[in-house]
């Protein structure tokens, strides 16, 4: 998944700020962020008009956007300009743009500098460059699913764990053993920090992909990634999900449900329900 917040930037570096004006906003903004991340852009902030994107001046060149293919896609209209941002207090900028998120009056996802709330589940994360703050629709809906599900004594996999926020809520809801896996090294390191910060010592954090699932078995699998990766990996999720186990999938749009559900059905996973938020969905499947 792409990144959606301004992380703490290195104060000693100047940055180049790109202002992208995107129409229509979705899915173009998500695709744009993903492609910019591949060419060394470090951080992003979604705006009402599009995306602000930042790259270290030392990593920038006047050809930096040559491989960002969405800019040449006639389906979307994307305009941009850029400027150099002089050194400033990036930590203050980050804090200004990261608000605590409350889910169903039961759970708050916040940064360490936010005041401690009076809720049942208080999750403190330092997101940095990792996806999973609760701000994006998919993470918010997955948190809702976890809040509405019995995790006591369950074995859980959080695939594409990002900050580790979903694994952390599963732990706080009583899951017995939890594996959190992400292919990105930054996410892996960030999840380790957040797991320790929330005193969830029984969450095992791994760097890797579905190849780590061999001989594993889970009661519940959570996968908030993207449509194409889900379609590739559903067969592996099914192999390690116990009969009558639950699979939560998100990272795709409402119109993708038939395709995702058809692939799931091939591997004995039956659709039961889904949540929807701004055309994003988080669907639930049962292993039969």
Automatic annotation (TrEMBL):
GO molecular function, one term: protein-lysine N-methyltransferase activity
Top enzyme class: transferase
Pfam family, any one: PrmA
Catalytic reaction list: L-lysyl-[protein] + 3 S-adenosyl-L-methionine = N(6),N(6),N(6)-trimethyl-L-lysyl-[protein] + 3 S-adenosyl-L-homocysteine + 3 H(+)
Superkingdom per UniProt: Bacteria
Encoding gene (name): prmA
Purpose: Methylates ribosomal protein L11.
Gene Ontology cellular component terms for the protein in this record: cytoplasm; ribosome
UniProt similarity note: Belongs to the methyltransferase superfamily. PrmA family.
Protein's name in the database: Ribosomal protein L11 methyltransferase
GO biological process, one term: methylation
Chain sites annotated for binding S-adenosyl-L-methionine: 139, 160, 182, 224
Known EC number: 2.1.1.-
């Amino acid at each position: 998944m792409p990144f959606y917040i301004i992380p703490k930037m290195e104060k000693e570096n100047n940055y180049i700020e790109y202002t992208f004006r995107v129409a229509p906003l979705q899915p173009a903004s998500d695709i744009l962020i993903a492609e910019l991340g591949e060419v060394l852009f470090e951080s992003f902030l979604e705006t009402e008009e599009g995306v602000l994107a930042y790259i270290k001046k030392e990593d920038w060149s006047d050809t930096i956007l040559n491989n960002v293919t969405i800019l040449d896609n006639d389906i979307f209209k994307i305009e941009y300009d850029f400027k150099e941002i002089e050194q400033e207090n990036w930590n203050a900028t980050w804090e200004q743009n990261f608000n605590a998120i409350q889910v169903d009056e039961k759970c708050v996802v916040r940064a360490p500098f936010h005041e401690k709330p009076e809720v049942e589940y208080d999750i403190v994360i330092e997101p940095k460059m990792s996806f999973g703050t609760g701000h994006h629709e998919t993470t918010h809906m997955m948190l809702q699913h976890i809040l509405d599900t019995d995790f006591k004594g369950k074995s859980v996999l959080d695939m594409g764990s990002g900050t580790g926020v979903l694994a952390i809520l599963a732990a706080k809801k009583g899951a017995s053993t939890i594996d959190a896996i992400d292919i990105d090294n930054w996410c892996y390191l960030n999840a380790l920090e957040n797991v320790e910060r929330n005193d969830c010592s029984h969450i095992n954090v791994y760097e890797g992909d579905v190849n780590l699932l061999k001989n594993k078995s889970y009661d519940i699998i959570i996968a908030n990634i993207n449509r194409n990766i889900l379609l590739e990996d559903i067969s592996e999720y099914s192999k390690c999900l116990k009969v009558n186990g639950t699979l939560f999938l998100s990272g795709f749009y409402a119109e993708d449900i038939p395709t995702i559900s058809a692939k799931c059905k091939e591997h004995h996973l039956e659709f039961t329900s889904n949540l929807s938020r701004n055309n994003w969905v988080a669907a639930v499947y049962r292993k039969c």
